[in-house]
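Researcher: I've been going back and forth with a colleague about how TonB-dependent receptor might be arranged in three dimensions. Neither of us has a model we trust, so I'd like an independent prediction. The organism is Sphingomonas citri, in case that matters for your notes. Sequence below.
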Amino acid sequence: MLVAAAAQAQEAPPQANAPTANPTAKATVDQPAPPADPTPDANANPDPTATDAGADEIVVTGIRASLAKSAEIKRNSTIIVDSVSAEDIGKLPDVSVADSLARLPGVTAQRVEGRDQSLSIRGLGPDFSTTLLNGREQVTTGDNRGVEFDQYPSEFFSNVNVYKSADASLIAAGVSGTVDLRMLRPLDQKERLFVVSARGQMNGIGKRNPDGQRYGYRATATFVDKFAGDTLGISIGLAAQESPTNYDKYEAWGYPGLNDRNVNCDAAGNPCLLGGAKPYVQSNLLKRYGGVGTIEWQPSDSFHSTFDALYTHFEETQHLRGIEFPLGYNVAPNPGSVTVQDGYVQTATFSPQYTVQRNDLNERRADMYSFGWNNDLKLSDSIHLNVDASWSHANRQDELIETYSGTGYGGTGQRDTITITRQNSGIYSIVPTLDYTNTDVIRITDPGGWGYNGTTAVVQAGFQNRPKFSDDLKSLRASLAGDFADLGVIRGWEVGANYSQREKKAQYTSYFYCPSGMGTGCTVASGTTTSIAVPSDVVLDPVSLGFIGVPNILALDSRGVLDLLTPVFDNRPESLAKVWGVKEKVATGYAKLVFDGTAGGKAMKGSLGVQVVHTDQSSDGRIAGLNAGAVTLSEVSGGAKYTNVLPSATLSVELIPSGFVKMGASQTMVRPRLDQERISQNVAITPGNVGRGSDPLNSPFSSDGGNFQLRPYKSTNIDMSFEKYFPGGGYVALTGYYKRLTDYVDPNNNVLYDFSPLLSSLTPEQQAIVRAQNAQNGLFKLPANSGRGEILGAEATLSLPLRMLTRSLDGFGLFGSGSYTSSAVRYDSAPADTQTVPGLSKWVLNGTAYFEKWGFQARTTYRYRSSFLAEVRGLSATPELNTAKAEGILDAQIGYEFQSGPLQGLAILAQAKNLTDQAFYQYTNGDPRQVRRYQRYGTDYYVGLTYRF
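Model: Here is an independent structure prediction for TonB-dependent receptor. You can compare it with whatever you and your colleague have in mind.
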């Protein structure tokens, strides 16, 4: 929790402690401010010391005001916190919430589809943090718990706080940290406000698909006013956005050995050959519409009520077009065409070679609602009662369409000759000889003959996957807080309880699509038509894969192609087992003592508390498998109950004037991914493995599923921070932290399981062989809390207005941070092997240089992160982890605000994102030369106007 002691309020008389659950409580010298609203008055001068000798006080705005307000939040907090504050009503410093947070010490963002979307805090990915809205836990439109920050319009928030240490009253704290999104409070404003803004966007890389878009816009409006003698306040915000992204995309299938293509390469003895690749060009269009509203009522000093509402509607359309080249996994290179350098094939030619041309369409629709009602009642001069109720809900529906074309079914038809050449970046140029725009050659078909329904081959000319998610969270919290009159530095107390119920459901429905005409069930054996001609009415302007060396290819209307085909339900066990639901009922009780006073002549503040968290979790789902060629499906459910005790302590001591030492010790926990808590299983029976021996890896039986008894990750945390705040504004901070992780989830855990009940699915002869070899014992893959580890790190931050050095630099300033994090995670299954924590970059560096004066403002920001394990959607929307290369991103903006005359209130702003055109790379097997993914997004440009009435 925060302990506020604003410099201008140091002589305020003692006031009663308000419960820290209160999202609208105001901070006083004796009152611990809640994580809900530590922001100073948005219209107050955030830097009261920034004055010229003999001159009137200087009121700073924009960038400098944002930094000053963030510094004030950090200074007044007893826990370790970093913040981003709005430069003005409805304007965080960057294009998105994630962009802004990625400038904070120890915080990094992973780019997904060209946007900063998922956050890592102190080396731990989005699965290890918790996101709050006005102090309340939120649902997400994502597949699991990790919040996709682009679902929130940045214009809706006055500040965003990242709490890096814990307090007993901070419910749902994460292991890595807690992100709290703070909405504007209307009673804090001194006057009526009406602000409108509009901004245009342009992709520098250009439109990549004929049905893509290069230009976008963003428009917002905010209204704030007070009534009834300033006891009733309202704020309303509206936002609309259409944001395009275009990029080049390359994926390598893998790297078999040149001399033995059945195994992975060894750069020394078995040179690395490109096994296959699929280059694409992709065009995305994100549409987001939303609104927020707040009603705040404080009829007296004894009662304060606040109601918040937020709604966002999210649509995204993605057009992908490219070609898959099987290459080394399909055929050996032509003799004499291969050159090798440093263990890697540099050039090679493949013929005869078939290819698979792709025209894909992905669409997502999501709606998110969030409501919260907080009431704070002063029961006496020293006791407050706070009651807070909230509900958030999200629905998401995806449609992922794949369509295929080539010269003929299953490698028939005209073959190609393809030459590959390795580039310095590690990706390969791929030059074909066929004309892939010629509809006399290219047909709608299953060119690789890859279609398989689990038992027999099908003609898969298209595929449709329709994942659907719902996420619902209800919460009720009550707390009492009060003062002690005569206990010295023990100033106050707080007790409270929170009950929440969350339920997330996932349902996947998928279909094979084959050419209409002959056959049944799309099966090859039934005589299904294997290909059809490409009709002219689905042909669009061709697209170029020139970035990889492929000239123009056919661009088809993906949905139009699907309309030409016949759907057949996909009832493979691995598809049916993706239906699940997880419910969590969590009761949390907490108590803490609040310290505030003087010890040894030094001002000190802090708290000592404990949380007791009882969890009742359950899951419903399916066990799906194949038995004698028939799909079996069983509905199952299960659950578990457990209790965790989480102590915490915080302390802030002012050792020297404006110089603080802050310490924190706590135990925290964060729940595992929801899909890991599912009960569903996919049981596989492989008769071909009969007779291969007793090794469980060769058993004809196996299963892959979740673990409904999975427990949360737990962490014992030690934090220490040294902070010095300068008289003229700015500060320097050095923070160290240690986390001891226990109950760490091993997602690849396997246990030995006796599958004897499934022996009846085999023939009598096969059963006898399995029993004789004791091969009925196979592997059951399910996540388990079998890991442990440590994280050790340090952060340094400098906020420096250069006016401190000389008046001639007034208006100029620097803000920078750097962090180093080391980690080691081990699983019981392989205690000698050290695992990499997803999302962890050992080095994270951020630097901002700015100027702001006379209405002008300019800023450049550079962000660097070293390599890290990044999660990206892989085949069939399955999460896939690979190492991402280090990257540095440069952003810039310039603007002017008219401060007088007829245009007063008008501001002009221009921004550029990713000026260095930094591409995103992933690689495999710990070798940066084995590029798994490459994505180049280009630079985005923005120009906008804001008018404040």
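Researcher: What would you highlight for our discussion?
Model: I'd start with this: Residues 193-481+508-557 form one domain. After that, consider the following. Residues 62-76 form the longest helix (15 residues).
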